[in-house]
Amino acid sequence: MATFNEGRHPAEFLLSEANGQRSRGNITIAQNQTIVPGQVLGKVTASGQYVIHDPAAADGSQTAAALALYGAVTGAGATAAISAIVRDAEVNGKTLTYKAGLTDPQKAQIAVDLAGVRIIVR
Q1: Residue from 88, 98, 94, 89 nearest 42 by CA
Q2: DSSP string spanning 6-69?
Q3: N or C, where is the chain less crowded by C-beta within 10 Å?
C-alpha cells in the first residue's frame, strides 16, 4: 500500500489571533521563493518584500517578521501577494517551517524576533 505524506495546512500553526483580521496582513513575496504555510519570513529592507528568513543574511531578512498563512511559489521576475500573520497572535513553534539547518539557538532568536511584533511562539 502506498504511503502518502500530507503537507502543511493553511493556519495549522495558529493557536490564537486577534479579533477580526487584525493579526493578518497582505504582504508581497519576492521573486524566486517557495513558501509553505507556517514559513518563517523576513522582510528585505530595501524592497519591503518578504523572503524565507535567513539568519545569515544582511538585508533585513535576518530578522523574523511574519509567518505565511498560505503557500506561494514565485519565479524569476515574479512576485506574489499572500496573507500572513504579521502581529498579535500565538503560534505553535513545532509546526512552523524554518530554513533548513537552523540550530536551536537560532530558532530561539526567531521567537524573540517574532515577539517584537507581538507574535508569541509557544
Answers
A1: 98
A2: --PPTTTTEEEE-STTTTEEEEEEPSS-EE-TTBEEEE-TTT--EEE--TT-SSSTTSEEEEES
A3: N
